[in-house]
Design brief:
The complex is a heterodimer of chains A (111) and B (120). Chain A is mainly beta and 111 residues long. Chain A is built from one helix and nine strands. Chain B is globular. Classes of the chains: A mainly beta (111), B mainly beta (120).
Chain lengths: 111, 120
């Protein structure tokens, strides 16, 4: 099972929005509504910020939103703040044989 | 909810490592536990999961034959053992609560990570 494809980096100024893509295949992203997104600050464990494509766990600001079209899922961070500077990973269910696959990761920089 | 992992390990190539993850703050048997690793400067990699209730496991194909996940219900602890270690196994290993066994994959609580170093 190959990793999902994400851009290596993305950036935006405080208050702006940034959108990160996550491209897979019909065997993972395109086949199920089961994409999740994780935020990881340096030296820390990942944190769940989106699950089931667009659902936010309790406590996650509504500045974080998710969507999906075909084989590509997207995470949008609106109203960028300094603390949003982190690595972001998507993850998708990949069928009963492979189960789960992560994306390659995107480093978001707040300019 | 808290997942507390065992400490850092240094192992020789060919050896095995066993990492523990003690769960607290919720009913242990009601959530699957997953293991995810991250090599230095690299991305996340899903290794497999265990159902703490019955002990059934599912492993990523890459680790089949080398990884064993077990649990101890009496102490609410899961274990991940990786054998035949090589330098490429140098990584931080995380346990993470969640369910990737059905068409919905999410990992909502993570341990602090256990660094495993396999010097070449």
């Amino acid at each position: 099972q190959s990793a999902l494809t994400q851009p290596p980096s993305a950036s935006g100024s405080p208050g702006q929005s940034v959108t990160i893509s996550c491209t897979g295949t019909t065997s993972d992203v395109g086949g199920y509504n089961s994409v999740s997104w994780y935020q990881q600050h340096p030296g820390k464990a990942p944190k769940l910020i989106i699950y089931e494509v667009s659902e936010r766990p309790s406590g996650v600001p509504n500045r974080f939103s998710g969507s999906k079209s075909g084989n590509t899922a997207s995470l949008t961070v609106s109203g960028l703040q300094a603390d949003d500077e982190a690595d972001y990973y998507c993850c998708s269910y990949a069928g009963s044989d492979s189960l789960a696959v992560f994306g390659t990761g995107t480093k978001v920089t707040v300019l | 909810v808290q997942l507390t992992q065992s400490g850092a390990e240094v192992k020789k190539p060919g050896a095995s490592v066993k990492v523990s993850c003690k769960a607290s703050g919720y009913t242990f048997i009601t959530y699957y536990m997953n293991w995810v690793r991250q090599a230095p400067g690299q991305g996340l990699e899903w290794m497999g999961m265990i159902n703490p209730s019955g002990g059934s496991t599912r492993y990523a194909q890459k680790f089949q034959g080398r990884v064993t996940m077990t649990r101890d219900k009496s102490t609410s602890t899961v274990f991940m053992e990786l054998s035949s270690l090589r330098s490429e196994d140098t990584a931080v290993y995380y346990c993470a609560r969640g369910d990737c066994s059905s068409p919905s994959c999410w990992l909502d609580y993570w341990g602090q990570g256990t660094p495993v170093n396999v010097p070449s």
